[in-house]
Write a structure and sequence with these properties.
single chain; about 180 residues; alpha+beta; five-stranded mixed beta sheet; 11 strands
């Protein structure tokens, strides 16, 4: 989980969102959404072979069934979480909340989403649905779900990136890649 979640510069005050939408966010999800950024972003890496800083991006792919993951195994097509201010921006998001007591919390490369339970009997539980109303239980809360995510590194500027050769020097905000 190291380097997966990025802290926000400032914690978001969710009170205005809750008052505007006349709801209370589930406590565990609220602690996640107000403290962490909804996306995972690029990481800078210095390749020692040519001393040029390059970007690579860590995408998350989830599976509760596979111990080792390849990029083609991405059944969730997960892109990012929905930022707090955009959670109930569209009528389709409100529809799920009103009809099923579930709030969509993620964006995917298809029309599916992760949902957080908003009712007393499913509070904080995480569900997944493709583009149907068939919801699959995923985890008791957002942190349990994240603990089950498998990481795959997508290398944009590196033809090959051996993650075992990545290291950081004290007080550097980028990764280095050993050339040998």
């Amino acid at each position: 989980m190291r380097d997966l979640l990025l802290f926000r510069e400032n914690i978001i005050d969710s009170q205005e969102f809750e008052e505007l939408n006349k709801l209370r966010l589930p406590p565990v999800y609220k602690s996640f959404a107000t403290v962490f950024k909804p996306y995972f972003g690029f990481t800078t890496c210095l390749d020692e072979s040519d001393s040029i800083k390059k970007d690579f991006m860590t995408h998350i792919f989830c599976s509760l069934e596979k111990a080792k993951y390849q990029i083609d195994d991405d059944e969730l097509s997960f892109e990012q979480f929905i930022d707090l201010e955009d959670l109930l921006k569209y009528d389709s998001q409100r529809y799920y909340l009103e009809k099923f007591g579930l709030m969509p919390i993620s964006k995917h490369g298809h029309s599916g989403s992760l949902f957080v339970g908003m009712k007393k009997d499913n509070l904080d539980q995480i569900y997944y649905a493709l583009d149907t109303h068939e919801f699959s239980f995923m985890a008791d809360n957002i942190f349990e779900l994240l603990s089950n995510f498998r990481l795959v590194t997508v290398n944009y500027d590196f033809e090959t990136l051996d993650e075992n050769k990545l290291y950081q020097n004290w007080r550097e905000d980028f990764w280095r890649h050993k050339s040998s």
